Amino acid sequence: MKKFGRQSTTRPVAQKHDCSEVLCLAINQLNNVRAVLSGLGIRYRDLQREPRGVGISVVWKHAGYLVLSVAGADDDLLSITAGLLKDVRHDRSRILEICNVLTRDNAALPVYLNDETGGWDIHVQQRLRIDLLRAETDFFRACLESLPVAAIEMRSKFQESGIKGQSYSLNGEDAQHLLLRSLA
Amino acid sequence: MSPVSCAAWGGNGDGIDAHDSVVRKAIRQLERVRNTLAGLGVQCREVGLDVFGAGVGVAQNGTDFVMLSVAGPADGVLNITAGLLKDISHERPKVLELCNSFTKRNPACPVYLHDAPDGWDIHMQQRFLVDVLISEPWFFRSCVEDLPVVARSARSKFHAAGICGRPYSWSEADARRLLVRSLV
Description:
The structure holds 2 protein chains of 2 kinds. By secondary structure, chain A is an alpha+beta fold. Chain A has a single domain (about 5-180), classed as Yope Regulator, Chain: A. Chain A contains 5 helices and 7 strands; from the N terminus they run βαββββαββααα. The two termini of chain A are about 30 Å apart. Chain B has one domain: 2-Layer Sandwich (Yope Regulator, Chain: A), CATH 3.30.1460.10. Helices cover about 40% and strands about 25% of the residues of chain B. In chain B, strands 1-2-3-4-5-7-6 form a 7-stranded mixed sheet, sandwiched between helices. The two termini of chain B are about 25 Å apart. Mean pLDDT of chain B is about 90; it is low at about 1-5. At the A-B interface, helix 2, strand 6 and strand 7 of A face helix 2, strand 6 and strand 7 of B.
């Protein structure tokens, strides 16, 4: 896959004076993730810090993007999230049925309805230990490359079932929206 | 019996030829899994074969257990499954809501409804590459040890929400039920 975005740079360790202690841990862990991505030659884009955690996006030219996030409360875990649809119509029972089928058929890629007050979204998210991803960089790369492809297939299943919603676009606003929700 | 000397329940599955090409690949991978478990000092019990694959059970506290299974068609992947409840009441909307809620909050341990004609069960399943688990046995150990604990907590929440069903017990019948269901 071709990638674009800003190449990573070495980042300083987060200092406690510019973040809460919990958030500092998340920032330092995300820096560890950034270092692995740089080693793999995978480019990423920085996203704005959220009160609950931090994240970056990895953009794939023909397959959308992923948000990689670390929550302050769970700083040893990396959430790798793809947005399938946002602002979906409130056909709740049908959405939950499809989420259940997709998760049952492949629990490696869990799909769920994120029904916050600002709108209902459907996500697929892998949540993995950062120390595992640092030790198994080929596996990390495989996760990042396969999730967007799986997300395209999953999105089409929702659409074929008549679930209406918008696609996540490549703009920074949608990526920031996905970061915020991935931390919920 | 494998060289690891797992305890065994029953035979190799009724009417299933262990040398069938699909199952053979699963058995080979499961052998590697058992060897890793033996190196970790984790006791397992052979549950046998199904037309789609093979599995072993690992008990915890005498009652809870996880099923480790490999499906022949996806023999690079290990399913680590905990049965939360079996033969649950057919309160489908409420069950799907709870499954979605658990999966959304913790995609590391996805929860789903498995609705076969002979009964509706609720499972929690992790799915990882066998090669990764073998390369990182510390991580494999944490999966096998942690999943029953997370499953126990989730089970109590289903009960608290009024979902009626029976817990899986560490018996041959329940282990075989979970094996078969973890594969399809």
